[in-house]
Amino acid sequence: MGRERSLFRKRDEINLKDGAFIARMKQLRYSLFSKQELALFFATVLWGITFLIIHIAVRYSGPLFFVGFRFIVAALISTVVFWRSMKDINVYEVFAGMAIGFGIFLGYTFQTAGLQTIISSQSAFITAIYVPIVPVLQWIFFKKLPHLYSWIGIIFAFIGLILVSGQDLKGIRFSKGEILTLLGALAIAGEIMLIGFFANKVDSRRITIIQLFFGSFFAFCCMPLMGESIPEFSWVWFNIGVGLALMSAVIQLTMNWAQKSVSPTRATLIYAGEPVWAGIVGRLAGEYLSPSTLLGGLFIMIGIVVAELKPSQGRKKNKTTGKIISLL
After folding, report:
1. How many distinct structural domains can be found in the chain?
2. What is the C-alpha separation between 225 and 270, in angstroms, rounded?
3. Rounded CA gap, 264 and 269, in Å?
4. Alpha helix locations (H) across 33-59?
């Protein structure tokens, strides 16, 4: 009997340990990623996919028309959702929306034009350089000296850019598509600065609608100046344009909900994966990623994280707001 009791006690101890282990694993699983963080993760995956989608769309449409069409649809969707807020619009918000809209127009037009000649994953890595560019522009225009971590991030990003573009020791030569995409990254960085400048002075719903309308307006107005004609109707560019606009609206709402409880630090780490997903999707679609491109992409990602995760006592809770709006 004593032996049987001993065996029963050992069995119960093992069961208790197993139960505690299982409970601990479940607790760990739920503590690693919250619902909000998973939402941001899937949103980032979707944004990584958009580079390949746009790369396909510009085979059937010029970049200016596609950008204009994409943003006018997004503007109309935003108007339907937030039309009640438009009754309180003021002149200052129109001016702010026009300024940000011009930045959106430049950034996405350059990026879309670049995708005509370079692969989607390469475009994603180069575009991501806008993150470490922001502190440099703040230094130039607002005399705000970048933190040491920002400079380190810039150095990593520049090395990554050289590797992604396949440079050699004979000299630095960028292709037309790479230059256009780099200009797009610069414009997006400027757009984020404008968003940061106007953010606390305007209504976010109205400014989103206004900037999208102006982004579309500038794109359509530049078509005759650049000699770009209206493309022949194709369900490809039409469906992609409407799909991107709808996806932007859904992701915008998802991110606004998620970032109420996700810290800027964790959000930044999640967003840094965007070019990685673009590279994975591009590779699955048949794009070739050379070892130098992969290494360069890694350097750019390190640059993004280092530049964004700098210690700062005055860091605002809504640090990543610019990232959200710029992705529309």
Report:
1. 1
2. 40
3. 9
4. 35-57
Domain containing residue 140: 39-326
Residue 328 sits at the vertex; the CA angle it makes with 140 and 211, to the nearest 5 degrees, is 65
Place of tokens 């040491």: 148
Q: How do residues 266-292 score in pLDDT, each as one tens digit? A: 776 777 778 888 888 888 888 888 888
Supply φ then ψ for residue 168, to 5 degrees: -120, 180
Mean pLDDT (the chain, rounded): 80
Q: Does residue 199 sit within a domain?
A: yes
Whole-angstrom CA distances from 297 to 76, 88, 215, 255, 263 are: 36, 45, 29, 25, 25
**Domain annotation covers residue 34:** no
pTM: 0.80
Closest C-alpha to 127, from 73, 101, 164: 164
Q: What is the residue-wise DSSP string for 164-200? A: HTT-BTTB----HHHHHHHHHHHHHHHHHHHHHHHGG
21 domain residue, yes or no: no
Which residue type, as a one-letter code, is found at position 143?
K
Amino acid at 287: E
d(CA 182, CA 107) in angstroms, rounded, equals: 9
CA distance 285 to 81: 35
Asked whether residue 18 is domain-assigned, the answer is: no
Helices 130-142, 176-198: axis angle to 10 degrees equals 60
- 317 pLDDT band (50/70/90 cuts)? very low
What contacts 92, CB < 8 A, 6 or more positions away? 201, 202
For residue 212, count other CB atoms closer than 10 A to its CB.
Answer: 28
Residue 278: the pLDDT is 87
- Cα–Cα distance for residue pair 247/324, rounded to 1 Å: 13
